[in-house]
Amino acid sequence: MNARIDPSQLPLPPLRSVTQELPLHDAEQLTRGGSQARIALNGQIYFLRITRAGKLILTK
């Protein structure tokens, strides 16, 4: 069962410091409602995939 979750309702992980919060990104927005997205880091391209089971996989 895949229920839609509002990311703003998720608990935030502990802060690294009092002034620095971790960013929260919605995977479905990153994939534009699909199941895959490309993510660039230091000139490398990575692939983010949402599985049928609702898990995230990040590969190079």
CATH fold-level topology of the domain at 27-60: Complement Module, domain 1
The succession of helices and strands, N to C, reads: HEEE
CATH hierarchy class name of the domain at 27-60: Mainly Beta
- What is the CATH-assigned architecture of the domain at 27-60? Ribbon
Which value, in Å, is the CA radius of gyration? 14 Å
Number of helices: 1
What structural category do the secondary elements indicate? mainly beta
Unreliable stretches? none
Mean pLDDT: 86
CATH homologous superfamily annotation of the domain at 27-60: Complement Module, domain 1
What does this structure look like?
The protein is mainly beta and 60 residues long. It has a domain at 27-60: Complement Module, domain 1, CATH 2.10.70.10. Helices cover 7% and strands 28% of the residues. It has one helix at residues 27-30, and strands at 36-41, 44-50, 56-59. The protein has a three-stranded antiparallel sheet with strand order 1-2-3. Strand 2 and strand 3 form a beta hairpin. The mean pLDDT is 86.
Keywords:
Complement Module, domain 1, 60 residues, 3-stranded antiparallel sheet, mainly beta, 1 helix
Explain briefly what this protein structure is.
By secondary structure, the protein is mainly β. 7% of the residues lie in helices and 28% in strands. It has a domain at 27-60: Complement Module, domain 1.
Topology:
Blueprint: H1 27-30, E1 36-41, E2 44-50, E3 56-59
Antiparallel strand pairs: 1-2, 2-3
